[in-house]
Amino acid sequence: MKKWILALTLAGGVLGLSACNGASSEKVAETKAGDVSQEELYNVMKDKFGEQALQQLVYEKVLSKKYKVTDKELDEKMQQLKKDLGANFEMTLQQYGYKSEEDLKKTMKLGMLQEKAAMENIKVTDKELKDYFENTYKKQIKARHILVEDEAKANEVKAKLDAGEKFEDVSNTYSTDQAAKAAGGDLGWFGPDAQMDEDFLKAAFALKANEISAPVKSQFGYHIIEVTETRENASFDKVKKDLEKELKSSQLTSEKINEIMQKELKDADVKIKDKDLKDALNLGTAAQ
User: Fold this and answer.
1) What CATH fold (topology level) applies to the domain 140-230?
2) pLDDT for 36 beyond 60
3) What is the residue extent of each domain of the chain?
4) How far apart are the C-alpha atoms of 237 and 65, rounded to whole Å?
5) Burial classification of residue 215, based on how many CB atoms lie within 10 Å of its CB (0-12 exposed, 13-18 middle, 19 or more buried)
6) DSSP state of 45
7) Collapsing DSSP states into helix, strand and coil, what is residue 155?
8) pTM of the predicted model, to two decimals?
9) For the chain, give me the number of helices (H) and strands (E)?
């Protein structure tokens, strides 16, 4: 998941404010010292979270008119988020004030709508696609690893893999990399210029597909690495659509999202009627 969309998803849990819209004098709490009305609650929430909440509500209204996010797409993105966060998923939900996965999905949907708007507005040429294919895409590998603290433990792990034990099972038992461990050690696709330890990259790119390394020392400990796929024989025409999506995605930044959102808001002729919230659409994206 792109860093900006993950940040938006985790930072944006204030949409519940809309439930207090049309606030009245109806009581939400009673005490011997006095009651708390729905209107009082709404005003406090408006002061604290009003601008961010209104921004998100307007964004979703405007974007939903032009772009669609299906339940399937939302479920797939949720599964990716769970993979990214691993064992920290439930704790993260609580940390950012989400009551449930369904609560989180409301904000995640907005991030996906912004992503679709941005992807449609970013243009790439055939030359850019071919250059990306030759210089980056074809050089990528997909790998997984098991990270342990010392060489003796790494040799023990390698012996178990050589004896036929499943990589994901051994990873689950031994690996200290909690994020990768949650995905069976999978690190996804990356190139030789990835922001990883240099010794790790050198060892990984020396492997052939389905080959498992000897223990590799890095600044983090000792790794056992397996390359599961390479792209060196990929056909440009076959992967062109994937390339276009990947290249556009690589250009997404908070600044780009802001620029595109301002265009969408202008096209929708949005006007803020509440003078207390007049600056709500000048906040930038929640990912910043």
Assistant:
1) Chitinase A; domain 3 (3.10.50)
2) yes
3) 3-122+252-282, 140-230
4) 33
5) buried
6) H
7) helix
8) 0.65
9) 12, 6
